[in-house]
Structure formats: C-alpha cells, structure tokens
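Hi W.,

Here's what went into the run:
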Amino acid sequence: MKIHSSSKVYLQQEQDAKEYTMKTLKLLIILLISLATVSSMVNARKGVGILWSTETVVVNENEERCVEYGLYNPWDEDITVNLETSKEINEILKTKDVDTVNIVAFTTHENSIPAKLCFDVPEVYEKDCLIGNVLCEKRCDQEPIVYGGEIIVSEKPTATQNGGSSTSSSASSRLNVKVNCTPEARNLIPLYLVIIVILVIVIASMLYQKRKIQKGNPI
Amino acid sequence: MQERSINTIIIFSSLLLVISIVGLISNINDIRTITGYATEESATSQVVVQKYFSIAKSSNLSFINFGGIDVYINDINATGNYVNTTNASLYYITVSSDSNTKVDFCIRGTAMNTTNGDVIGLGNYTWTRSNLSNMSNYNDPPSALLSNLLTLNYTASQTNVGIGNNTFFRFFLDIPLGQTPGTYENTLFFKGVSSAGAGC
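Here's what came out:
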C-alpha cells in the first residue's frame, strides 16, 4: 500500500510537471507570436521604387515616342503611388497609362508594374520660307532643342497628427527628350509647277494665234 | 501680232519649259535625297541596361512632432532626434537592397502654418543629416547650430548613399518671439535620385 501510494504521488507530481511545462510552452509561444507581430508592426515600412532603361531619347519632329518605366515596392507594406512628370516634358506629354496605382508589399524590380508615358513632339525647328508656308528650307543650324524633366513616383503625404510635419517620399529618374533636326532643301516644286503651267498656257495660246493667222492668210 | 513674233515667243517659252522641267526633276531629287542602291545588309544587336532603386522612410519619419511648446526658444528638437541611451535618431531613409544604383537624397518643405493663417517661416525650420544614427562620434551628427535651412525647392541632403544604407535626419524648430499660439503644420518632401544623374 505504501509503495502504491508513493507511486501515485509520483505520478501526480509528473502530471503536474507536464502540465506546468505545457503551460509554460503555450505562454512562450504566445509571447513569441505577440513579439513578432509587434516588431513587424513597428518595423513595417513602405517605399517607392522606380526602374528605367533610358534617360535620353532622340525623337524626330511630328513624331510620337513612348518610354516605359517600372514601379515597385520591395518593402513590407502596401503603398499607393502617383506617377508624375515635371518641367518641360509636361509640354509634350501626350498620355500616361498609369496615374495612381497601388503596389503591394514585396513587389521587387523584376515584378515591377509597367507604366508607359508617350510624348508627342511638335515641329520645333524654324523653316526659312520665301512666301508664306511655301518654298521653305530647313538648315538646322540652331542649337538642338531638348525637353528636360523628371519622371517621379511619389507617395501621398502622411496625415498630420495635431501639429508637426507630415512627410512624403518619392523616387525619380531624369528624362531628356532631344528633338532631332533633319535638314530639308528648299521645296521649289510649287514654283516650277506654276511656271510650267503658265508656259504651257502661253505656248498653247501662241500656237492658237499662229494657227488663226495662218487661216486668215491662206497663201 | 506677227507670225514671226509668235514663233519667237513659242521658241523662248519652250526653252523655258524645258529648263523648268529639268529644274523640277532636280528639285524632286534634292528633296528625296536618293542615295543609290543599297548593297549591304545589317543586323542590329541591342542590349538594354536598366537602372532601379527604391527608398523607404523609417516608420517614425512618417510624422515629425515637436511636442507642445510654451516658450519662445530656438533649436527645439523633434521628438525622435535623440532617443535611448545612444541618442539615436529615429528619422532615417533607407536605400533598398533591391537597387542597382547609389542614391542622392533631396529634401524640401513648406512653411508651418495654422488653419487661421498664422505662419512660422521656413527660416525657422532646420535639419541635419548623418550616416550615423547615434551620438558616439560627437563630430557627427552635426548639431542644431550647423543645421541647414529647410527650403521650398529641393536641395541635396546626402549624396552617394549606398545600396542597403541609411541616412539619418534630425529636425529643429525655432519659435520666434511673439509667435501666435496655435497648432502649426507643414509637409516635408524627401526625394531619391540616381547618384549618376543630374542631382536634385
């Protein structure tokens, strides 16, 4: 009986120890999970990223050219960004297929969101015309015209908290759109055509006169 | 009109007509700039070199607070300027490891104002920057006395920040004598540009 009783006590103690270990383990797990959650909340960051493959494009007059960019966010929080352009390139910007976009967390540059910007370059180099807009030539002896600016990926400023400074971050890439000038010889075709038409009329009229004279003096 | 005169006009006009036709053809050739027959074929090889970088503010840099101030003093520290025993700054920007170019950081801001239109001018808001977060090296970071004025246009704050590196900021505010009490707010803008580019 004595032996039996002591083994019972021993078993009870073992059971208690097991329960205690389980409780401690549970507590530890909960603590670890809470710590991980809190630390990830504290360190959670969102950022802006830009990928580009050119900083200068050469475009002819009256030509449309599109340039592609990539927007990404390799950080651990989603972000909403705006795609903006600045300075002179705004004058020739025709379309951009992305204005505001949400980029999910952990979007690397390899999975960047494509954004295409198209520029429409007008006729910018002066022509030397003899009459109005005809009989013109283009010498291309002036300085090349370049539209410079930036492509900016920016986040919306944070809200202020009852005084202080809100902040906003952005990533930008430079872009120069250089307009190519192609020299053009003076176009004299309209002038030649007018002279030819006049001469044909004169010759035809003279031939008609000659024939009339010949008919009047049938010798 | 005599027949002889008519003949002269016809001959003269015909001559002019021939000259004009020759001129026309020559002008067409000039405009077309015919270069001759191509006898060579070519194949183009192309490689596109991409550049990319990403930056992120520290979570504390989402908002810069100077606390409640009841005296007119200079160089008030933002609450995250010197924290813990190491006097570390909680305001920093990081260049992501998912980048392939060094980055220059640019900073600009607006004046602090209240909804009633009271303003603390830009000249009262200053900043410093450093590669170090703490004050273990007392020559770096610079003190408020060596701080830079906040400007409306972007100015370079730190150049050539390497991939994975941080730049730490500290912000200081002067409250001019007689400043109207109120809740003042402004916005600071941080921009990253490729170090190989044209700057801010």
